[in-house]
Amino acid sequence: RHVLVTDLGLDRVFVYRLDTATGQLAPNKRGLGWVNAPPGSGPRHFAFGADGRCLYVINELGSTLTVFTYEGETGEMRPVQTVSTLPEGFAGDNACAHIVVSPDGRFVYGSNRGHDSIAVWRISGECGEVELVGHEPTRGQSPRNFSLDPSGNWLLVANQHSDTIVTFRRDRDTGRLTAAGPVTATPSPVAIVFCHPM
């Protein structure tokens, strides 16, 4: 029913109504037209929770993750939690990039460019709130994008500035990642998309 758009410069997530017959977009008049992200945070990418009632937005400039509740009928969102993507004490430059919710709906993953890690959170709250599991180094520089394979067992990371794709095995019970297999060399990888079986 809706198309959501992150606007990094305005610190907003916009909501548009989708006409499924024509494919046209219009301002959302049944609910809010946008929701504000924390000032200066720079929302970049988002992912829905498994039940579609939570939205996880990764903020590039603020190195944070914001959790929103989401109402599919009206497109309304309400922020419920904002947490850092970085470990305590990290003082270097960082910019977040991508975010993924695991197929089982239990974990959220986000990439840090600068700290060069994947942050892992467990979804634990009634409104989709998260708690930190840990950080896994990406074995490369500037993880611009990453993707879980359809089975949910493997996570592949595109390290843009070190020209590598690194494969990690995902523990389904803990959500943690472990580097596995050889590193694949490829020029400036920026996106990984799996073809799902029909």
Report on the architecture of this protein.
By secondary structure, this protein is mainly beta. It has no helices and 17 strands. The chain has strands at residues 2-7, 12-18, 25-27, 34-36, 43-48, 54-59, 64-71, 76-84, 95-101, 107-113, 117-123, 130-137, 143-148, 154-159, 164-170, 177-179, 184-185. Strands 13, 14, 15, 16 and 17 form a five-stranded antiparallel beta sheet that branches. Strands 1, 2, 3 and 4 form a four-stranded antiparallel beta sheet that branches. A four-stranded antiparallel beta sheet has the order 5-6-7-8, with no helix packed on it. The chain is globular, with a radius of gyration of 17 Å. The mean pLDDT is 94.
Order of helices and strands: EEEEEEEEEEEEEEEEE
Mean pLDDT: 94
Q: Can you give the helix content as a percent range? A: under 10%
What does the main sheet amount to? 5 strands, antiparallel
* Global morphology: globular
State the separation between the terminal residues, measured CA to CA. 24 Å
Backbone structural class: mainly beta
* Unreliably modeled segments: none
Please give the count of helices: 0
Hey, roughly how much beta strand do the residues contain? over 45%
- Number of DSSP strands? 17
From the alpha carbons, calculate the radius of gyration and give it in angstroms: 17 Å
Quick summary of this structure?
Helix content is 0%, strand content 51%. The protein is built from no helices and 17 strands.
List keywords for this structure.
198 residues, mainly beta, 17 strands
List the helices and strands and how they pair.
Elements: E1 2-7, E2 12-18, E3 25-27, E4 34-36, E5 43-48, E6 54-59, E7 64-71, E8 76-84, E9 95-101, E10 107-113, E11 117-123, E12 130-137, E13 143-148, E14 154-159, E15 164-170, E16 177-179, E17 184-185
Antiparallel strand pairs: 1-2, 2-3, 2-4, 5-6, 6-7, 7-8, 9-10, 10-11, 11-12, 13-14, 14-15, 15-16, 15-17
